[in-house]
Known about the structure:
Layout: H1 2-26, H2 36-69
Helix pairs in contact: 1-2
Amino acid sequence: MLRTIIAGIGGFFLVFIELFLVMKLKGWHSIEIGGIAPFVSVWSMNFFLLFTMFSHAHLWYEKVQDKRTQPEGK
Length: 74
């Protein structure tokens, strides 16, 4: 649940960071997104990017914790 919330909020902020980078690299002063549909599609791509990153980090952390709790002989 926490991964979903953080990915949603982080994806929202990533949209604006990406827009800022494009404006600075191309020397533009503003960007027209083109409506709500392109904004939501970029937001959803960023959401799934962050969600998969957090999911892999969570699985890795669980694997590390399992290795620590297992006896030495196994």
